[in-house]
UniProtKB/TrEMBL annotation:
It comes from the Eukaryota. Residues 1-20 form the signal peptide. GO terms for cellular component: extracellular space. The keyword Plastid does not apply. This is Kunitz/Bovine pancreatic trypsin inhibitor domain protein. The lineage of its organism: Eukaryota, Metazoa, Ecdysozoa, Nematoda, Chromadorea. Its main location: secreted. Keywords: Disulfide bond, Protease inhibitor, Secreted, Serine protease inhibitor, Signal, Toxin. Transmembrane segments: none annotated.
Length: 111
């Protein structure tokens, strides 16, 4: 009975870990446009982070990453409008005072 409970708990943890590691839609848009290694030539759309726009590309049919959308509208919805919604606060710089260097003739207790 204890083994069964342990097994179920391990299974739940493994499943939760797998699903919590999924990338956010914004992270998918930051991936490069990748045509894959196959040669089928499906019409797909991906976000080009250099231009800030979605563009058409030919996907081979296998090895897709998250930056692979069936329609231009879906690409724009997920990537172009999503970039405008997410804003990260700028960190403020703080000045730190550095203590003066010790004199040459002064003995330090830790030396």
């Amino acid at each position: 009975m204890k083994f069964l409970v342990f097994f179920v708990l391990c299974l739940i943890i493994a499943i939760e870990t797998k699903y919590s590691q999924r990338k956010s839609p914004i992270a998918n848009c930051k991936e490069p446009i990748f045509p894959g290694r196959c040669k089928a030539g499906h019409r797909r759309f991906g976000y080009n982070s250099a231009t800030g726009k979605c563009q058409e590309f030919r996907w081979g049919g296998c090895d897709a990453n998250g930056n692979n959308f069936r329609t231009m509208g879906k690409c724009r919805e997920m990537c172009e409008s999503g970039q405008q919604r997410v804003q990260y606060p700028l960190m403020q710089q703080q000045q730190v005072k550095v203590p003066p260097m010790p004199q040459k003739n002064v003995k330090q207790p830790w030396i």
